[in-house]
Design goal:
The protein has 13 helices and two strands; from the N terminus they run H-H-H-H-H-H-H-E-E-H-H-H-H-H-H. By secondary structure, the protein is an all-alpha fold. Strand 1 and strand 2 form a beta hairpin. Helix 3 packs parallel to helix 13, helix 4 packs parallel to helix 8 and helix 7 runs antiparallel to helix 8.
Length: 338
């Protein structure tokens, strides 16, 4: 077995093991997951993802480059996942989902997210290999997404009752009359099979996952088009989000500027993706000198892979530090959501 195949074996084995442990913890825990416990589990899953980057560096034939691409992709996708969890918290709050039902919903959402990302990745890579100009489209999508994240308040962008799939499911199928039925997708009542309020929440979570995948795949494509890097960094970023959800829910007020940091990262990646296309257009228009410089940005970033990682890490660290400073010094004693 060559080293590349060995890395795939390590990846899938780790995926199965982490999923099994996380599922066992979710289904067998009798009490609400506290912030400290959630942070410990989150730290463990991050350590596993970082350990895998070390395996890439040591075992992969092109390890030095892919190691940096993997870390850049992982940090970017993990940052997006954190921002997505804020949306899940709002959905649960607006739909009155009790704490006991939230772990299972998050876990189902994670499995659905992984499946969607794998499908989108396979199609995305195949399309880019055939139509390279799609990278410019993906770059434009990221720039638009960055603007949307800044211009739209989170609580204004989440309206479960206006979700088309939610409304369609509620109209097409009978809904269980007991709002406390929050552990199963389907349940019988007086001999009839009903969908449950739990099912309707999952519909909202699932349709939101589709939007998240549409946003996240162009982001990772702007960092690497290597299928191994794209898939592994994406899946590792999503694994363990169940514990991260409860950590975020307990301290979400401390991350006021995280969304701004994520939007800057998306903007950076998007601009980096479209600059070569803009350079080609300028060259055709007669501005050959400027065009050549813009076209050269892609080659420069490929030759200096660590530059993208450094920018992403600095932006993310700055947004977190600013958030903590804001809560401690500007708004001392501000309430924390539990």
């Amino acid at each position: 077995m060559d080293n590349t195949k060995l890395l795939w074996v390590i990846f899938w084995s780790t995926f199965v093991l982490v999923s099994a442990i996380d599922y066992f913890v979710v289904t067998h825990r009798k009490t609400t997951i506290g912030v400290k416990s959630a942070l410990r589990w989150t730290s463990l899953w991050i350590a596993v993802a970082l350990a895998f980057s070390g395996a890439i560096y040591v075992l992969h034939p092109n390890g030095k480059i892919l190691f940096l691409e993997y870390l850049s992709g992982y940090i970017t996708e993990y940052s997006l996942s954190v921002d997505n969890l804020f949306v899940f918290i709002l959905i649960f709050s607006m739909m009155g989902v009790k704490d006991v039902a939230q772990p299972k919903l998050i876990k189902l959402g994670i499995y659905l997210s992984i499946a969607l990302r794998i499908v989108f990745i396979l199609f995305g890579i195949a399309l880019i290999h055939r139509f390279s100009w799609l990278l410019y489209v993906f770059g434009a999508i990221l720039i638009w997404t960055a603007w949307k994240m800044i211009a739209t308040e989170s609580d204004e962008s989440v309206h479960p009752d206006k979700n088309l799939l939610y409304r369609a499911a509620a109209k097409l199928f009978p809904v269980h009359p007991d709002p406390q039925e929050n552990k199963r997708l389907f349940a019988r009542y007086e001999g009839r099979l009903f969908i449950t309020p739990f099912f309707l929440v999952f519909v909202v979570i699932g349709s939101t996952d589709v939007l998240f995948a549409v946003d996240s795949i162009p982001a990772i494509m702007g960092i690497s088009q290597d299928p191994f890097v794209v898939l592994t960094s994406n899946v590792f970023a999503v694994l363990g989000l169940n514990s991260l959800f409860f950590a975020i829910r307990g301290v979400m007020d401390m991350f006021k500027f995280l969304k701004h940091g994520v939007s800057v990262i998306l903007l950076f990646i998007g601009v980096k993706m479209i600059l070569p296309g803009l350079g080609k257009a300028l060259t055709l228009a007669g501005a050959a000198t400027v065009g050549a410089k813009l076209e050269g940005t892609e080659l420069w970033f490929k030759a200096h892979t660590s530059a993208s990682l450094l920018v992403i890490a600095l932006v993310l660290a700055t947004s977190i530090i600013m958030s903590v400073w804001y809560e401690r010094d500007v708004h001392p004693g501000s309430p924390t959501q539990h």
